[in-house]
Structures are given as structure tokens and as C-alpha cells.
Amino acid sequence: MPSFSDRRPSVLVVDDSALMRRVLSDVLGGADGIAGAGEFRVVASARDGFDAVRKVHQFDPDVVTMDLEMPELDGLGAIGYIMSESPRPIVVVSAHAGPGTGAAIRALELGAMEIVAKPDEANRAALQRMGPELRAALHRALAADLSHVSVMARPPAPARRAPEGGLRARAQFAVAVAASTGGPRALAEVIPRLPTGRGAAVLIVQHMPPKFTRSLAERLDSLSALRVVEADHGAPVVADTAYVAPGDYHMRVLRAPDGPVIALDQEPPVWGVRPAADPLFRSVAQVFGAKSVGVVLTGMGRDGADGVRAIRAAGGGGIAQDRGSAVIAGMPTAAVQVGGVELVFPLGGIADGIAAELAARGASVGVRS
Q1: Which tens digits make up the pLDDT trace of 218-265?
Q2: Rounded distance, CA 318 to CA 305, Å?
Q3: Catalytic residue among 10, 25, 94, 180
Q4: 175 CB contacts (<8 Å, ≥6 apart)?
């Protein structure tokens, strides 16, 4: 009979740094003096992508932690092979400087579930401090339904965008979007299909570590007819623009004499996360009222549920991703259960649903084919 410890989720740790492999193994598999360690069973470690692919087949781990910048075969290549040949949850453990952030966003498009940022200091104490965040990310990844993650997904073709020119009008309508685990892939399906020229701004909360949100915005911007930016405090909320909440900052919209503006703050986390969707959604309900739509996409927990109910109470629309297409259905299911959602769509129908809701509220909206 297997022991209780044998039933802990098994992990393959992949990193080209021997120190990083050792510390990650300690904070996951258990070491003296590390609080919370021992929740997982580290079955092996790998030093590069080729080694990782071999050991996935050899040890069949439940979940993989994956570095991105490695010799021989990098993390993106390894994720592609693993998700094609032997799919399983993958958590990216990446530096949040230089090319690491952009590569991490691409890793999520290829099928990785979560990102955890490596600390700036490469010492053992700093690496151990990331333990609670890493363990939480692995638990979220293990809750994902991989049957809803297509193999080697190709992102949409880049949108044709009219040349920039002149001042953009203040937004008359707002679409507030909440997403967590599986969200970057979902956003890459929805945001590029939203049109311009309809008087609407899009405000996005994606649960993600600091500094990676800028790369997420840049990636979505490259695919979309909308302009997509990481939000700045005090920026005007203008039409044809999507704003991504920066990691570690709540984002709200506030009334101002010339029109709505972005407000960022570091008030305490809500539902354990910052940014959280509920503060944004409530502010959208207050400022835009019936000219707003709340959208809750894939993710664990209930962030966005109370906020989308506030939007509905203000006369706005509420949309949730359906259970059948969500990588983790917790957030959209909670939004439905509290009565904040009137429409539920598979991921491929979300953009059309947003268009229809805005049209019903006075904006003539279509979607880009």
C-alpha cells in the first residue's frame, strides 16, 4: 500500500541553475526550517528542455515547474513538446526582467497555467521566500482542466490598425473583464475580436505577478485593433483602448471633470489577490452605470462575482464564460451563482456577447472577423 506521502502531487523541477533546482525542491518537497514545505513530492529535476521532456516521460509527474531561459532546448520549446506529447499542468518560474516577461506570456499561450516570478536576489533566502506563492500556483495549476487547453494554440493574426492620430474621445461605454488561471489564453481569444470606433473602453484585471502585466498588454496590443496598454494612474479612460491593471495594483475608474480616469492603489488584497476584479467592477458600475458590461472569464475562486452583480444592479450587462470552455470554472460559476450574470457563453462566443450587450445599451458594435 502506498504511504500517505506517496499520494502528494508529484513535481518535476526544471531549471538550468543547480541552486535554483535545489531550492525549489526544498520549498516544495520539504526541508528542515522551511514552513509549509512538504506539500509536494519532487520526483526529479532537469537542467534543460531536452532533459525535462525525457523526465516527463520517465517519471510522469503531476505538475512541472519550468524555467524559460535554458541551453539546448529552452522552456518554450519544452512546453510545446510536453503539451503535444504528454499534457500536464506547467507553472513557469521566470525572471521578471528583460526577455523573460515576454517569453512567459508566450508560455501561457502554449499551455502553461501560471507564472511565478523569480526574486531579484539570487540567494537562498530570497528564493525560499517565494515558496508560498509557488505552492499556491501549483495547487491552482493542478485544479485546471487540461481538456480545455488546445495543443500548441496559435494566437490570432495581428490586427490591422488605423494610423494613430489626434486625441481619442473619452469612453462612453466600458467593458470590465476579470480573468485568472487560463486567462491570458482566453484574453487572446476575446480582445483581438473586439472592434474600434464604438465609443467603448475595456478594463482588464488578470491575476498575474508585477511586471508581467506589461508584457501581457504588449502581446494583446500586437494582436488587436484596440490599443492595449498597461494602465497608468491618472490616465484618461478613452475609447478604443484596453487597460490592463498592473500587477500588485488595484485598478478603478473615477469621475473627473473631463471624464473618467484610471486610479491605481495598493490597498489590501481582495480575495487574496491584487489586482482584484471586484474593486474595478464596482467602480465601473458607479461611473458608467447602464453603459457597462462585466465579463468573468476562467479562474479559481470568486473574484468578480460581487462586482459583476454590482454592474447588473446599475443596469449594465453581465457575461460569464461557460464551464465547458473554462480552464478553471470557479470564477465564472460564482458570478452566475450570485445572480450577476444573465448570459453565459463558450469562450468563442464571448466577443459576440459583448458586442450584443453594448449594442443593447446604445453602442452600435460589431466584432472583427
Answers
A1: 999 999 999 999 999 999 999 999 999 999 999 999 999 999 999 999
A2: 10
A3: 180
A4: 194, 200, 201, 202, 203, 292, 293, 295, 354, 358
How does pLDDT run across 329-358, given as a tens digit for each residue? 999 999 999 999 999 999 999 999 999 999
pTM assigned to the model:
0.90
* Residue in 215, 303, 306, 325 annotated catalytic: 303
Q: What is the pLDDT of residues 186-204, one digit of tens each?
A: 999 999 999 888 899 999 9
The residues near 108 (Cβ < 8 Å, ≥ 6 apart) are: 92, 115, 184, 185
Beta-carbon-side half-sphere exposure of residue 153 (alpha carbons within 13 Å)? 21
Q: Confirm whether 180 is a catalytic residue.
A: yes
- Gap between the terminal Cα atoms of the chain: 56
Mean per-residue pLDDT, 258-276: 96
Cell 523573460 maps to which residue? 100
**306 given a catalytic annotation:** no
Catalytic residue among 10, 15, 94, 207: 207
Question: Quick count: other Cβ atoms within 10 Å of Cβ 356?
Answer: 18
How far apart CA 4 and CA 360 sit, in angstroms, is 56
C-alpha cell at 83: 503539451
For the question of residue 60 being annotated catalytic, the response is no
